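fwd from M.: "can u put these together and see what the complex looks like"

so here's what she sent:
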Amino acid sequence: QVQLQESGPGLVKPSETLSLTCTVSGGSISSYYWSWIRQPAGKGLEWIGRIYTSGSTNYNPSLKSRVTMSVDTSKNQFSLKLSSVTAADTAVYYCARVMWGMDVWGQGTTVTVSS
Amino acid sequence: DIQLTQSPSFLSASVGDRVTITCRASQGISSYLAWYQQKPGKAPKLLIYAASTLQSGVPSRFSGSGSGTEFTLTISSLQPEDFATYYCQQLNSYSFTFGPGTKVDIK
C-alpha cells in the first residue's frame, strides 16, 4: 500500500528556509493532491497547503507569503519550503495524501528552529 | 477563511459509553468534512470522510453525520483504544482547516 516518508533537516536557524521532502512509495504520485500539515508540541493540527501533480497549489493564507510547494513526479516526491522561519515554526511536519480526506500520512518529522 | 469549532474540547468518559463530538463551521461546507483520531506521538488517522462515510478498516462503532455547518462524530460504545484526540477538518474551500480538537480521556 502507499506509504509516505518525510525527510529533511531537523534543525533550522532563524530567518533561514525550512526544506522538507515527502517520498511516496508503493504507488504513483500522479493524479492526486498532496498536503503538508504541521503540529507544534502539545497543540493542534495546522494545514500548510496542498499541491496537485500538475504543480497547481493552494496555501494556508496565514503562511502563503512564506510557503512554496513543488512536485517531482519522476522521483515520486513532493516538497515544502518555508522561508524566514522563527521559533513559532518549530513543529512536527507531516505529509499526507488528499482524497475526500487525508487518508495516508507520513510518520512526521520534527523540525526545530533555533540558533 | 472557514473556521471550525469543536465541542467539547475535553471529554472524560468510561469504557462502554456513547460519546458525541460536535464540529461547527463558520459557513456552509456541504458534506466536505472529515474526522481524524490522533494518539500521542502518532500521525492522525482518517476515520470518516464526506461527513458520514466510514474509512475502510475503521470499526463500525464510529459514525458521522451532518451537513452544512453542523456535524457530529459518535462513538457508540467507547473502547480502551479509543482514548485519543479527535479533529474535524473541512475540505470545502481551497484552504482546508482543522478544528481545535477534542481530547477523550478515561473517567
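replying to her w this: The longest strand of chain B covers residues 19-25.
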